[in-house]
Model the fold of this input.
Amino acid sequence: MKKTVKNLITWSPSHLITSQKSAFTLAEVLITLAIIGVVAAMTIPTLVANYQTRAWNTSATVFERKLEEALKVMNTQSTLAGHTSTENFVEELSKHLKITKTCANDKLMDCFSETVYWGGGDVESTEVKISDISTAEHFGQKNWGTNIVGVQLANGSSALIAYNPTESCKQDPYSNQINGANCLAILYDTSGFKLPNASGKDLRANGNVSSLGAAKCAYEVDGLCFGLAFSPGVHEWKACNGEGTSTDPEDLAFMQQYGIEHCSGAAGPYDFWAGAIEACGGINKIPSLAQLAKLSEKIYPDIASFNTNFEGVSTCPDGAQCMQEDIVTKLGIKMSGEDGTLPAIWSRDFMEVYPLVWLFEPTGTGVYYYAQNGAEVQAICLK
Done:
């Protein structure tokens, strides 16, 4: 009997049914990828923004907590109040807060970004150059008579600090309660030099920074922009003698930096005239007698002319009061008896080695004289 051998290679049982596998077409793959890309483009920026906001908020919380802890320690040690300058305050603060770098007023950009953006919300964001920032006036405050100082912290954040010596922090070491928050104005950047350097994002401030940028004129006369009057802090000379000269390197460096030809021999080591110049940023930022006379023409319209040669008082007609008090109020000039001050403003002019001041009284003006100490004399900066 003959047997038939089937080809096992080509033969397949009839009961086995082969099936075809399906796959995505190229067009379908491209459409799917496009959809994923659109969804990612819509959601990833929001996720990144939320992450950045959380990071900024966390850094701000850490900064504020560390600062508060440092201030409480200073409060307990009775070193919170009584500083005559921001530099002195920051020096004490650095003992309790991890500050890695301190930047003087003329080198703020060594600690802070060169340009920041201030505004947002209902206020249009504006570009502000840190080189234009120097005093509390640039934070929207009155001139506190001190400089702004920059610091960098160990956690990467940076800050600009202004300290108010005349309305200092009121401390209570027993209850450890810190009052008088008006003593500090602080602008800080939670990300340091990194972008965006914009308020409401990485750029934050305490409640005493109401604006940022060039200070506005308190009063303007013939193109002269007068700032608000303030009581300046004191500058301590190292070796200023009665002739207004010194050989001390620190004294000479100070005079060169602020354009002072000689130190004030009338004041001894403690010089409020030099403190006013330091606060204003240079002797040319202090008004001259002639410029103060221009201002007096507006404050005393009934006085025909003003003495500018140390010759005496220019009085109102018949000795009556003729001061325009609204202008004096705008300038913030304090009258006699207010906080122990005189209604007198420092000028940049000298008689021998004595700086001269311009006196403002309700019944007259134009008197300028030197003060042996000068603590009671006010100052006005030209903007």
Remarks:
- The helical segments are 26-76, 86-93, 249-258, 272-280, 289-299, 325-331.
